[in-house]
Amino acid sequence: MALLECKNLCVGYGSKAVQENLSFSVEKGDYFFIIGENGSGKSTLLKTILGFLKPVSGEVIFSADWNKKEIGFLPQQTDIQKTFPATVKEIVLSGCQANLGWWPFYKKSDVEVAYKNLEKLGMTDYAKKSFKELSGGQQQRVLLARTLCAAKSVLILDEPTKGFDSEITEIMYGLLEELNKAGITIITISHDLDAAKKYGNRILKLGKTWEIVK
Predict the structure, then answer these.
(1) Per-residue pLDDT tens for 79-96?
(2) What is the rounded distance in angstroms from the CA atom of residue 111 to the CA atom of residue 109?
(3) With 90 as the cut, is the pLDDT of residue 107 above it?
(4) 3-state secondary structure at position 112
(5) DSSP class of residue 56?
(6) What does the buried/exposed string (b/e) look like for 27-59 if buried means 16 or more CB atoms within 10 Å of the residue's CB?
(7) Strand, coil or helix: what is 11?
(8) Which helix H or strand E contains 58, and what residues bound it?
């Protein structure tokens, strides 16, 4: 079942297209990679799918199973995020904000979900530590745990392993693979074709033209 379908989609800024005539679908349960060099339009496409940018032309069609409240988005980490003055627990709990409604306090169930996701990523022992004192790989795991608090069906990531060494990159992709096997549809941007071939079941390659390579 297609969660989303892009038809003759042109993405860019204003009237200037970065990629043109994209036609592809993302199926429920996919581990879908979008790969390409810098400037090929990967992040622009992702922002268009998420609704942050309007299509230059064409359309993105969503199925009834595409629920914005069940989608987690992990953008590229910024320098400000790396020094954010909060504990790991506070960072991860903030991913449950969409569940608060009119009640401005986290519920017991929110705390349980936060710790469950920390456990999935092997970060439970760091719950009370300051986020800014963690290594880059540990911080990314914490941010992924935060994203999982919002992601019930779809997880979207923009270069989740950027700046990591090969060992941490393998660990991160392995964690994402486990989440995908547990039923979460994953859409991730990468410049690493080898990783895409190893972990993804479908790959969209962007360049001067585009193609589905797997």
Answers:
(1) 556 677 789 998 988 887
(2) 5
(3) no
(4) helix
(5) S
(6) eebbbbbbbbeeebbbbbbbbbbbeebebbebe
(7) strand
(8) strand 57-62
